[in-house]
Design a protein that fits this description.
Number of helices: 6
Helix content: 25-40%
Number of strands: 5
Structural class: alpha/beta
Distance between the termini: 30 Å
Order of helices and strands: HEHEHHEHEHE
Radius of gyration: 16 Å
Shape: globular
Oligomer: single chain
C-alpha cells in the first residue's frame, strides 16, 4: 500500500514549503476516503502538525467484510460487495499485512484534526462508515457524519442535478469554511442528516 507513503510525502512537502497546516484540508472519496483516514493516523503517529480538516466521503473504513449493507445494498449501489473483497486483496498485494494493519477502523483518532464524513444510506459501505464514526466519537474524536438515506456510493457526482447531492456539496463548503475559520464550535451547525456530531 505505497499510496500512504506517497500521501505522507506530499503532506510533508507542503509543510516544508511553509504552507500553514491550518490551511490544509485533505479530502477523498471511497478508496480516497480510506487514504484520508490512514494519512490522518500517520500524521498523528509521526507527531506532524494536524491539517484543518479531513473529509472522507463514502469512505472505505474497513478492508474486512464489515456490516450487512456490504452485500444487502448490492441491489441499489453501483459498487458491489464482492468488489471490496478484491480491492482488499489488491491493496495488500504480495505483503503479509492484515486487514487491521491496512484499515482505519480500530485506530485511535482522539486528538486528531476534525473529521467530516458523508455517506449515502443505500451504499454498500454505509454500515462500516457508521461503525467507524461511532467508534471515533467514543474515542473523543471531533467527528461528524451526515447520511442521506436514499443515496448511493459517491452520490456527490450528481452535483446540482440531484437535490441531495447539491445539499451534500453545500455542507462540504460549510465544513471547509468552518475549518478555515479555526474550527470554532457552533459555526458548523448540525443538520437533518447528521447521525454523529461531535464537532
Amino acid at each position: 500500500p505505497a499510496q500512504l507513503e506517497d500521501a505522507l510525502r506530499s503532506y510533508r512537502f507542503l509543510l516544508s514549503r511553509a504552507v500553514p497546516p491550518t490551511q490544509l484540508i485533505v479530502a477523498g472519496e471511497s478508496a480516497g476516503g480510506h487514504l484520508c483516514l490512514m494519512l490522518l493516523d500517520a500524521i498523528k503517529q509521526q507527531s506532524l502538525p494536524m491539517p484543518a480538516l479531513i473529509m472522507p466521503l463514502s469512505a472505505w473504513t474497513d478492508t474486512a467484510n464489515r456490516g450487512k449493507s456490504l452485500f444487502e445494498n448490492d441491489h441499489y449501489d453501483m459498487v458491489q460487495g464482492y468488489m471490496t473483497e478484491l480491492f482488499s486483496i489488491w491493496l495488500k498485494g504480495d505483503t503479509q499485512l492484515s486487514n487491521a494493519e491496512v484499515s482505519p477502523f480500530g485506530r485511535d483518532f482522539h486528538d486528531t484534526a476534525p473529521i467530516y464524513m458523508q455517506a449515502g444510506g443505500r451504499e454498500i459501505l454505509v454500515d462500516m462508515i457508521r461503525d467507524f464514526a461511532n467508534q471515533a466519537a467514543e474515542q473523543g474524536a471531533r467527528i461528524r457524519l451526515d447520511v442521506w438515506p436514499h443515496m448511493t456510493h459517491e452520490f456527490h457526482s450528481y452535483g446540482k442535478h440531484h437535490p441531495d447531492s447539491h445539499a451534500a456539496l453545500q455542507e462540504i463548503a460549510k465544513a471547509i469554511a468552518w475549518a478555515l475559520a479555526g474550527a470554532k464550535t457552533g459555526q458548523f451547525a448540525k443538520n437533518a442528516h447528521s447521525e454523529v456530531d461531535r464537532l
